[in-house]
Write a structure and sequence with these properties.
Number of strands: 13
Distance between the termini: 64 Å
Radius of gyration: 21 Å
Strand order of the largest sheet: 3-2-1-4-5-6-11
Structural class: alpha/beta
Helix content: 40-55%
Strand content: 15-25%
Length: 325
């Protein structure tokens, strides 16, 4: 099977590329740097520049094209023009943040309404899905939509501030967990995501359909914080700050909370298993947290503290205390 990845070097795409190659897929990777994982054909071109992309692709045709780096309707509109008649499947990587929050009923399924008035990123993904769905219905464009939900690798700490947050925890300083820490969150290791994703490539029953791919493990945010503390062998000093207060102090952080992380997110993978019956996520977050901590501690160059964000956390913690008093 001949497959093209647009992107190919990110958290999700790199794991999917490795597994695709292991399973014998003839993989090409298109990006501006011309970099690819070993074993894949590297194509150097800019997908956002039609002439550059066409020159890089030549007359190649594919069984599946996966778009990892499209974020606006303009991006996917150009892709439809570029790949119409050139691929048997076009896979768009959307986002589970597009699902309406808070949801009326858990777990979330693919039929849960798409709506996010808080986060522009999510609204753009919804607009991309709308355009592609019309292209499928009206012209038969062979689209499959995939919605990841917080997929991580060893470099991705799930809390805002990343290393800065983890370093505070390591030092025994107070760390912020939004809300009251009890909302549920689904977090998925990149290798588990790949196990659900790669079998969708070239699968005829996926055309015109949307799937999310996640772990079945749902943890509270306090549990996620305490998992890191256990790996570091420290006692966590958790301070709960409301998402509204965080949004007032830092709108960029706030839109990610109010539009996504502030609400319980538990997802039902039944639809995925209907086409990938053997899919199961096997990497618990305890293992993932160890991988993250070990990666950061292995190299001091990775341990960069964001002084501005560190000070913001101090201010939010102080403000939360004054309100409670």
């Amino acid at each position: 099977m001949r497959v093209l990845f647009i992107g190919g070097t990110g958290v999700i795409s790199s794991a999917c590329a490795r597994l695709a190659l292991e399973r014998g897929i003839e993989l090409s990777v298109l990006n501006r740097s011309g970099s690819a994982v070993p074993g894949a054909t590297a194509l150097r071109g800019d997908i956002r520049d039609a002439a550059s992309a066409r020159a890089a692709l030549g007359d190649r045709e594919f069984d599946a094209v996966v778009e990892f780096v499209a974020f606006t309707p303009e991006h996917v509109r150009a892709d439809v023009d570029l790949f119409r008649g050139r691929t048997g499947q076009y896979v768009f990587i959307s986002s589970a943040s597009a699902y309406q929050k808070p949801v009326a009923r858990l777990p979330i399924t693919e039929s849960t309404p798409l709506r996010n008035p808080f986060w522009q990123y999510s609204r753009d993904k919804i607009a991309c899905e709308d355009l592609l769905t019309r292209a499928y219905r009206e012209d038969g464009f062979p689209v499959t939509i995939v919605r990841p939900s917080h997929t991580y690798d060893r470099t991705r700490i799930p809390f805002q501030g990343r290393w800065t947050w983890l370093d505070r925890l390591r030092q025994g300083r107070e760390v912020i967990v939004h809300g009251d820490g009890t909302s549920l969150w689904t977090i998925t290791h990149q290798d588990d995501f790949a196990k659900g994703f790669v079998p969708l490539l070239g699968h005829g029953r996926t055309l015109g359909e949307a799937f999310h791919i996640t772990s079945d493990e749902a943890l509270t945010w306090d549990q996620i914080a305490r998992t890191f503390a256990a790996v570091l062998r420290v006692e966590p000093r958790i301070v709960h700050v409301t998402s509204d207060a965080i949004a007032a102090a830092d709108p960029e952080w706030g839109e990610k909370l109010l539009g996504d992380k502030a609400h319980s997110t538990v997802l039902d993978n039944s639809k995925l298993r209907s086409v990938v019956p053997d899919f199961v996520a096997t990497i618990p977050f305890e293992q993932g947290a160890r991988e993250i901590v070990e990666w950061y501690l292995a190299d001091s160059a990775r341990q960069v503290v964001d002084e501005k964000f560190d000070a913001l956390m101090d201010r939010l913690i102080a403000a939360s205390r004054s309100v409670s008093v």
